[in-house]
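Blinded run. Sample ID left blank on purpose so nobody reads anything into the name before looking at the predicted structure. Input follows.
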Amino acid sequence: MQKLLSALWCEDDGVLSFEWTILAIIVVFGIVGGLAAARDAILDELGDTAEAYLNIDQSYSFAGFGPFPPSSYTDPGHTFVDCDRGGVVGQLPRDDVDS
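Blinded prediction complete.
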């Protein structure tokens, strides 16, 4: 029995493959976390861009002169509803207001 325990203690054939497996697992976890963070940042930026596009005011007014009559247009405005992903684990709720 002592010879078996001694042989197991000195065994190092599978050590390198175990280290590579642990390293691969850590790298995969890092990639998944990084992609999730990038996804959230991209979605927030696209939401801000959509809000900026919707807030473009195309109203105008022309007083007219000579043969040209006065003219005006009032942009009715649009609504933008930001998706609230605050309930997702690891994210803080968005309470910032861009104005």
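Unblinding after everyone has recorded impressions. Helices lie at 2-10, 15-54.
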